[in-house]
Structures are given as C-alpha cells and as structure tokens.
C-alpha cells in the first residue's frame, strides 16, 4: 500500500522518522482543537456571537504564522528542535489554562493564544524534514507522518464530537486530556537528529535572508501570489462551513463528524498516494489537481441538504486538502537546497499567516450581509483563477527543481 511502503532509508532518516511519530501524534491531537472544536465550543457552549471574537478563534492557527520569520531567526541562533519543543510546551499550557476559563472572552483569548503559538513550530518542523530526508524518500516519509497527524485528528475529532453531543460542559476535561497528551509528545522532538553543519549553515538565515528571498526570488514569489489567492479562497471557508451546517440545524456531533472526522479520515487514506505523486509530477500540475478536488467538494458541500452527501463532499474536499497540505509542507524543497529550506518555509508560512488571518475576517464580514452559499461561490472563482495562474509556472518549476537537485548538498552528517 502506498501509505505504508517506504524506500530504503539512511540511518539518520530512519531516526528522524521514528522520533517524529510521537511529535506528529501530538500535533494531530492539537490540530483537532485548532480547526473546528475551539470555534464549536465558543459558539455552542459560551454563546459567542461577537464577530471579532469569532475571528480571533477562527484565525488563531494562522495568526502564529505571522511570527514565522521570528521563529526562523531564533532557530538560526539555537537548535531548531529546542525552539520547537519550547513553543509546543508553552502552547499546550495555554490550552490547559483555557480549559479552566469560565467566560467566553477569556476562553477565546487563551485558546487563541495557545493555538497561535503552537503553529509557530510548523515551518521549523518542515525545515527539519526538508533537511533530513533526501528527495527519493521525502515524499513517502512526510506523507506517512502527515497521515499519522491527520489520523489522530480524525479520531480526536470523533471523540470530541461524540462527547460534546452528550453535554457541552465536557469540553473542559476533553481539552485537558488532549493538551496533556500532546504536551507529553512534544518532548520527543528533542531526539530529532540535527546536523552541526546544518546549524552552522543556518547562521544568519533569519530576517535578512527571508527579505532577500521575497525581493529577489521572483518565481517563488509568483507561486506565493498564486497560493495567496488559492489560500484566501479556501481558508475563509473555515468558519463559514461550521456556520453553514449550524444554520441547517445539524447537531454538534454531526458537525464535528462531517468537518473533522470524515475530513481527516479521508486525508489519512489519500496522503500516501499524494506522497508518491508529489515528486513524480510537475509541482504546478500536482497543485492544480488538488485545487480541482477542492472545487468539486465545495460545490457539493454548499449545495446539498443531505447529510450523507455533505459528508461525501467533505471527503472530496479533504482529499484535495491532503495533497495540498503535503505540498504546503514541502514546497520549499522545489526551490531551495536543503540549507535554505527553513528560510523559504518561514517566508511561505508568514504569507500563509496573512491570508489565514485575513480570510476568516473577510468571510465573517460578508456573512453579515450574504449567505454562506454566496461566499462559497466567491471561493470557487478565486480557486479557478489560481489554477489558470499555475499554467505558466509549470515549466519554470521543473527547471528550478532540476537546478536545485543537481547541486543538492549532503542531507546530514553521518
């Protein structure tokens, strides 16, 4: 099966994979809190209706991305795994504090802060994967790790939705348990291999290096423009799909099942296949294929009133998201040699933070005067434009990838 088969790996690659299992398990459990559960608790338990508070909780996972350049600067001075572990421990402690909050505002602020800080580790983890895995195993290995992460999210989402249907007051012990488990998993990050030479090459690759990428690397920044339009069109639907199902009268358990459990289960099943295709296809063609699945899923999701059909649409949407998420984590490896991957990822993550924060704000503003179906139509237009913009980029990315891989440096000191 594509998901479980891995090519022959070097010793440090195998060590990276083994020590990443627990970390991705913890991040998967944490991700289930970030995506839908926090918003669901704010709306159904605390009765939060203020659009600014809804915006904070909806965009929190991307607000942390705005500080990605700072985390990259820190990692150029200290070991990446030290920075990652510190970030993840602080984030989990804030979520534990949110479990004790008794007001909607304090819950949103603490939960939002925990989620935002937790996402700071994303570009650093992706940077370690990009540096430690060679091209012939990277897609397979990161695909397996992503499958573990989203699989954990699927199971956690099912548990959260089932218990919340019994009583919304159970969110406190649920938050405490999930945050506690992911807190324990964060300590395994310390065991990740990290080469001394790679650390030396990372010196000075902070804000200045990121600025140079944004100013001088035109093909990469063009792709970021395409990704901005695509990401904005997709990410602003995060709160809208929850509100859409709530307005249709579905229960909290049904909402969590359709958006989280079905979605993440579909991602698990599809990630292995996407991992095999990523480095065998032109990146632009690969990305266009994932976007087309997004679009089909969105059309069905927002135009059906049948719960099984909505779940099917969510599965299609998530299948595209699995491929998109894998390409998101590894896009820098198509443009930069391994020592530069963390810098490129920090730029990529920072720009993702902008659209992730801006998207929910715009969609919640539009929702004051327009229905959810109208907003989904705007998303389809944006995604269609992004697919057309990918066409001239295909030969450029192919040429750039060949140049990068031909002068690729040693993966890790043996």
Summarize the structure.
This protein has 414 residues and is mainly alpha-helical. Helix content is 79%, strand content 0%. The chain starts with 10 loop residues before the first helix and ends in an 8-residue tail after the last helix.
Mean pLDDT: 83
Whole-angstrom Rg: 20 Å
Structural class: mainly alpha
Shape: globular
Describe what this molecule looks like in 3D.
The structure is a single chain. The relative contact order is 0.16. The model is unreliable at 199-204 and 409-414 (pLDDT under 50). The chain has one domain (11-406): Growth Hormone, Chain: A (Up-down Bundle). The longest helix is centred in the first third of the chain and has 34 residues, at 11-44. Helix 10 crosses helix 16 (341-366). The protein has 414 residues and is mainly α. It is 79% helix and 0% strand. It is globular, with a radius of gyration of 20 Å.
Key words describing this protein structure:
single chain, 414 residues, mainly alpha, Growth Hormone, Chain: A, globular
What's the helix and strand layout?
Blueprint: H1 11-44, H2 51-63, H3 68-75, H4 80-99, H5 104-118, H6 121-132, H7 135-166, H8 171-186, H9 196-202, H10 207-216, H11 218-235, H12 237-247, H13 252-278, H14 283-303, H15 307-330, H16 341-366, H17 372-390, H18 394-406
